[in-house]
Amino acid sequence: MAPADHIKHTAGPVCAECELKLASAHPYMVYWFHRRKAQHPDLHVSWAFRDQATQDDLYHRGLTRREWPTSKHNFMKDGKPCSFALDLFFIDHGIAVFPWPRYQLISEDSKAEMSPVLWGHDFKFHKEDGDHFEFTDPPHFDWEAA
User: Smallest Cα–Cα separation from 89: which of 2, 1, 4?
Assistant: First the structure.
């Protein structure tokens, strides 16, 4: 299964496929994504929560550095998916694209808001994770959806 299956994603302020994926994310990550989506209507979610089979598969294929359950995509709360991370992409003329300059803009906007979300390129090591955004310290950030 390709994570950025752009055929299911739709243009505009709300994308049903993104909302399905966001249902497995922490409420703050949902809020954070909606703020970004308002500024970038062509922004979409390729991954939120990853179950063990998916994480193991991606790890064994060398597509992630983290084994289950150490990725912030694997977090669960009360036995339910509650991802602390989102992988994002854009759609340009029906094609999924991953433009680093646009991710940088999202990161700068997030930093300006003093958001607790970190861009994968800003990691101390392994700066190649440009489509990845995650909580910097989720256990100490208590936030519930309004």
Answer: 4
